[in-house]
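Final paragraph of the annual report: two paired records, presented back to back.
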Amino acid sequence: MQSPSRRTFLATGALAAAGLLAACTSSGGKSGGAGGSDAGGRTTKADPDLPLRTKAVAATDALLAQYAPFTGAGGAPGSPVAQLHAEVLTQRAALAAGLPTGTASPSGASSSGAASPSGTASPSGAPSAPGAPAGWAPLAAAEWSTAQARLTDLAAASPELARLLASVSAAGALHAVELGDQAPLAPTAAPSANPSPSATGSPSAGGSPSGAASSNTMSAGAVTALQAALAAEHSAVYAFGVIGARIAPGPKRDDARACYAAHQARRDAWQQLLAGAGATPTPAAPGYELPFAVPDPTAAARLAGEIEIRLTAVYADLVAAGSGSLRLDAATALRTCTLQANHWGAAPGALPGLPAQAAATTGTTGATASPPVSPSASR
């Protein structure tokens, strides 16, 4: 790991900019889906996302039914399961935006207590897996299977819906972990150096890119978003070097080293994909500045959570900009950053990587990833 005395981490640079990359909402006045005529007699175009949104809402309703035994009469409103249930309601509201009247509110489930959709660096109140009651196992399995199934629709979804599906899937994986399922925490797979043109099947459990995106067919927008992800990973690699240096030898330092290696692997994979697309990969900055002082292990853990939270916005943007297996790789990275943020004490929220206003209106987003701000010179 690098010595923190050599460079400082720029909060307003690559990774800080990442916190602003998740786009604002763009409902664009979408209505219920089927084509028809407007008030002036002009033909309106059908919403191509309608079938996928309807499917996603149905899956969420099935998941809410699994929560019913824990949140019905006699359930504790402030219990950990009730908090997760509130997040699922928030997700449903985002997924149902723009659907015909009648699907906008869940059937057989209370809509009160909706959770805040945006991620913060405050501690999460959700339960840790070691203390999860055995009775939560079916609910945990339902969260994980639903999270995985959502990613099968990424390729067919619009950029905005793909971003939302990836975010909801990442949150579902975290819910499964908090309910006691360790499957989403499977070891990270090494990235492949041999890209293939399309993605098939389910994403790997780890957060390293599979390298499956066809770099030669990458769009200009995808290249821009991937450059932003690479710049953010450069920052994360440096920051985790600082974090590891501030934590005493033991399990936490081992965790920091594992994160350091994972960010290095993603950085290297993004560099390979960009080079394959004929683009010059964004180099590491000559200097970085930490967003706050890191004098001890507590501050180091806080910085780790902050980094992972900001990276969720980067990867939500890459999901929207990418296609095929690059989109799938970005969704997997979004999930991994969500799980790591929670591990380090941050709270990703109901919709990791999306701004608060996304759930408050339509759950869709419209801005694209932008290049990172130029870092300052090293001190």
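The closing record of the year follows.
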Amino acid sequence: MRRNIAAEKFLNNGSADQNNQWSLEFIENLDNQHEFLVEFDAAGNIVKSRGFNRKLWSKIDKKGVSNFKSDSQFYSTKFFEKDGRRYIIGASAENYFYTHHLAYLRNLLIISLILGILFILVVSVFMKRSFLKPILTMMKEVQQIGSENLHKRLDEVKYKGELKDLASTFNNMLTRLETSFETQKNFISNASHELNTPLTSIIGQADLALSKERSKEDYQKTLLKIISSAEHLEKKTKALLLLARTGFVSNSSSFSPVRIDQIIMDAELTIKAINDKFRIVTDFDLLPDDSMRLKINGNAILLQLALSNIISNACKYSSNRTAYIALGALDNKVFILIKDEGIGIPSEDLEHIYDPYFRASNTDGIDGYGIGLPLARNIIKLHEGTLKVKSSVGKGTTVEIELPTYLKF
């Protein structure tokens, strides 16, 4: 419309017809609006121009209509021919919306992008701290654990979800490492302590046989007892070597399904053979109807070794030389309670009872080396079980053992 009005003005000596004049009155003026005229010859060379920037000549269609943009100006041109002369008449104006509003939108988008990035960075830092805080806490706890304090554990209550599982796994690994360190470090002491009993039995039987002349049958019986003690000594030696070699790592080749009630009875026989004054009272009232619930996966020699130590301690530290044993099963666990009515353990000594060679302050005059209970705990841990001790001075001590069953019910 503006281009046509401009053509009317230029071609009619500066005046537009009535229709175009009315249109011009009602059309909104644009920013930086102006009209131009170019007269050119048949060769396309400019003869004269009015209000035209000759740099735009190459963009104009010399025989039709052109619409194009240069910088911030929009142009519309059209070819006219009058009285044998060729004209290009056009109009141009600045698009205020494009120039200013679009620039405003561009700036707004840039600012929004920058603010969005800053917001994301702030949120990311906050979320990073929030998510990494428990991990950093765990790392600090882990860094405080070394070979000298393997008894420390991560506080699993602090963590949730996968981090709690990770803390539990790490604690299990620490338990294995601690047991392995202790077992290998105390192997000589454990061996000396545990091999002393069968050796004493062998020596005693040999001395008894040599104390006077005996019949051929008596010598044979004595030799059979010595052979039995020697075989027991061999099994115990192999078990101790296995314990030292494997530490806490369960070895499927050395483990097999065993009945825990049978192991307890074997331990009773071993203890009574050592000291016939020791009494053992076993309560089987809590036994399950299904005997399979008493089966665990383990090493019978090591388990017998652990239970023998605990039961003999119960007898040794009791004035009546009696240990009370209860056995039961619940869900996927086997429970063993070993109780005595002896001297008990002072509360200040309870935290040290698993330290090798430690003996309670009230055990003066009673033989012992402070090795049996630490060894028993390591064996129970080897079988993925737990051992807890509760004691009261003058009232006695209770040892609670929990072991996982071989089959899951």
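Residues 15-26 have pLDDT under 50 and may be disordered. This concludes the annual technical report; the extension proposal builds directly on these records.
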